[in-house]
Amino acid sequence: MKFLAEYRDGDVARRLLDAIAGTVTRPWTLMEVCGGQTHAIVKYSLDELVAPGIELLHGPGCPVCVTSLEMLDRAHALASRPGVILCSFGDMLRVPGSRGDLLGLKAQGADVRVVYSPLDAVELARKHPDRRVVFFAVGFETTAPANATAVWLARRERLRNFAMLVSHVLVPPVLTAILQAPGNRVQAFLGPGHVCTVMGEAEYEPIVRRYRTPIVISGFEPVDLLAGILAAARQLEAGEARVENAYRRAVRREGNPGARRLLDEVFDVCDRKWRGVGTIPKSGFRLRYEYRDFDAERVFELNDIETAEPAECISGQVLKGLKKPAECPAFGTRCTPQTPLGATMVSGEGACAAYYNYGRGGR
Questions:
Q1: Cα separation, 70 vs 317, whole angstroms
Q2: Both 319 and 217 in a single domain?
Q3: pLDDT higher for 100 or 227?
Q4: What does the pLDDT average to over 179-202?
Q5: Tens digits of per-residue pLDDT, 58-76?
Q6: How far is it, in rounded angstroms, from Cα 47 to Cα 41?
Q7: Helix, strand, or coil here: 339?
Q8: Cα(143)–Cα(168) distance, integer angstroms
Q9: Where are the beta strands (DSSP E) in 230-266?
Q10: 284, 290 Cβ separation under 8 angstroms
Q11: Who contacts 91 (Cβ-Cβ below 8 Å, separation ≥6)?
Q12: Exposure check for the chain: N or C terminus, fewer CB within 10 A?
């Protein structure tokens, strides 16, 4: 495929692997932030091909995986209400809540619909003025502009039967939380390319300065990732720490100014609870006061919900880079994509799903 095959070129990959091996003189621990990067690394066995001194940890960059159990249970509560159409992307339907998943609710008669864009949910609100349409808005900064567009459009059209359950999370605060955590081993990050196409580079610079930790913005193909690993290794070996853009074909330093203006208009920054991680200050988006009439938590007066996380699930430790999926006793037995204990096994970007799908972990 044009503009893709060159980023999977075996000769280029071998040269990069040789360059990494020739650079590394001591052990280094890197964390790829994005779940899409994790799947590519595991699919192409890049973590096994790189120099023995490089260890790759899997980070918290799977938006489905880190959506809090409380927020998922709120979505279930909304879907169970008469007259409500709950709209979601398909990858949220199999994620287990305290009492099952959205797909199970749909099978029981709840009106849960898979959409391909938040604008599809806006269109449903137009077509069904007698129903309440709620869009379950999850994701990092990558999906936030499209969701902001949907609620901005609903407000402009005065679609009072449209609401949004917002569970957006932000990357920089979770990187800080990882670096501050007891037992942290991360010495450099492969930064999330898709997020940076929206937000740019600048917000990572304070993290680099404070913690002296390189952040190399990387893409998602094998050559992209190996180039990012090489850049990080060179910084570490030289005792340097800076934000480096190894994904220039997609990321500009300033990001996408138009998208950022829209985010500032629609959302405020707030504290957010991350599944398996806990509450991280100023790590999420919520709707601004001007958009309060479209905030599902306010409109439906959702109260605190008692949650129940499976005790044996170690997905929180996987998301923080403390353990690998195969270290979970339930991996591949009691926890599979068909019977997931945690979101990291069922999400298309989850580390546990990557290990399971590509035969890692000895199952």
A1: 19
A2: no
A3: 227
A4: 96
A5: 999 888 889 999 999 999 9
A6: 6
A7: coil
A8: 9
A9: 243-245
A10: no
A11: 64, 346, 347, 348, 349
A12: N
Q: Give one DSSP letter per residue of 10-59, joined into a string.
A: HHHHHHHHHHHHHH--S-EEEEEEEHHHHHHHHHTTHHHHS-TTEEEEEE
pLDDT at position 362 over 70: no
Checking if the pLDDT of 363 tops 50, the result is no
Q: List the structure tokens of 300.
A: 């439906």
How much is the pLDDT for 307? 66
The pTM score is 0.91
Q: Which residues of 37-69 are buried (b: 16+ CB within 10 A; e: fewer)?
A: bbbbbbebebbebbbeebbbbbbbbbbbbbbbb
The answer to whether 296 and 165 have CB atoms below 8 angstroms apart is yes
Whether 46 is in a domain gets the answer yes
The amino acid at residue 308 is A
| 207: in domain | yes
**Tokens standing for 246?**
């190894």
Three-class secondary structure of residue 326 per DSSP: helix
Domain match, 205 and 285 both: yes
Q: Which residue among 285, 304, 323 closes a domain?
A: 304
Q: State the average pLDDT for the chain.
A: 92
Q: Is residue 288 part of a domain?
A: yes
Q: Which amino acid is at 310?
A: P
Check residue 76 and give left, alpha or beta (phi > 0: left; psi -120 to 50: alpha).
Answer: alpha
For 162-174, write each residue's pLDDT tens digit: 999 999 999 999 9
Question: How far does the chain reach from its first CA to its final CA, in angstroms?
Answer: 33
- Looking at the structure of the chain, the number of domains it has is 2
Which CATH number goes with the domain that contains 118? 3.40.50.11740
